[in-house]
Amino acid sequence: MKALTIVPKQKGSLTVEDRPEPDADDRLLLVDGLAVGVCGTDKELVAGEYGSAPPGQERLVIGHESLGKVRHAPDGSGFAAGDLVVGVVRRPDPEPCGACARGQFDMCRNGRYTERGIKELDGYASQVWTVEPEYAVRLDPRLSGVGVLLEPTSVVAKAWEQVERIGARAWFEPRRLLVTGAGPIGLLAALLGVQRGLEVHVLDRVVDGPKPDLVAELGATYHNSGVDMAALAAEPDIVVEATGVGRVIYDAMAATAAYGIVCLTGVSSAGRSLTIDSGSINREIVMENDAVVGSVNANLGHYAAAADALVAADIGWLERLLTRRVPLAYFDDAFTAHEDDVKVVIRLDE
Prior knowledge:
This protein is α/β, with parallel strands linked by helices. The protein has helices at about 40-45, 100, 150-165, 185-195, 210-215, 225-235, 245-255, 280-285, 300-310, 315-320, 330-335, and strands at about 1-5, 15-20, 30-40, 60, 65-70, 85, 90, 115, 120, 130, 135-140, 175-180, 200-205, 220-225, 240, 260-265, 290-295, 320-325, 345.
C-alpha cells in the first residue's frame, strides 16, 4: 500500500512511500482509506515545525482528518465490513491525568497524550489503516462524500460546548454570532450557529470566490470590512475566532455585547508583537462580565455531536466546502495553496 509520510521536523521530507499492509487483527478494525483532509496542522508538519514519529521509527504517516470503509471488523466490536468510519485523533496519556481518565483526553493536563498523524502515532494518510473500535466513529452512509469533515466539525462541536457551558453561568439566550475567518473551521462554526437558530455573521478578507457564496447559502451575512464594522452590524453575543491573527483576536475581544463570549479556535504564530490598549480590553471584559476561552481538539462526545450536525446539514453545501480533491499521486498539489481553496482533501482510493 501507499502512505504519505514525513521525517518530523525535517522540511522537504514529504513523500509517498510503499509500506506493507497491516494484517487483520482480532482487536482492531481494518479499514480501506478513502480520503484525508489537509489543514494548517498538516502544513506545519510538512514545513518541519513540529511532530514526532512512533518510537523506533524515522518517518511518520501524517493525516488526522480521516475517512475510510471497514474491510474487517472483529466479532463483538459493534462494527461490520462496509461501515463508513472516521478515526479519532487523540489517545490518552499512558498514566492518565484526571481528565484523560474520565474520557476528556481533549483536556489533557500533562501533555503526554499521543495523536494519530501528529505525535508518536502514525496517521490515516495510507491506503489501509487500523484503528481501535473504541476510537472509531461510524458515519451515516449519506456522508460518504463529505465524511472527511467529521474531525474539523468535532473541533467546532467542542467549541460550541464550551460556549454553552460558560453561558450557562447566568441567564443566556444568545441571538447573534460573529465568526472571524471563513476557512473550514469558521464555516463549520457558522453552520452550527445556524443550526442553533442564531443570526450568523461571518468576517473574512476575501471579496469573491466561494466563501461569500457559502456564507450566503447558509442564510448568514458575509462581511469583509474589518472586525469593527462587522461587530457594529452584528452586535454579537458570541464570537468564534478562527483566524489566529493577533489583531483580529484582540478586536474580537472588544466586539461583543454585554455578557459576551469569545471562543478562540485559531492558533497564532509566535514571535509577532502588537501595540494594544490592554487596559481598555480588561475594562470591557470585567465590566461586561465577558469571557474568553480557548478550545482545541475533541473527545468522543464531540465526534458524536459532529456526526449529528453533518447529517442534519445540507449535503450539497458540505460538498461545496470541499473545493479540491487531489489524488494521492499528486500530493504536492494538495499542499500548494490555490486562490479559491476552502478545504482540500487527498483521495486515497485511486
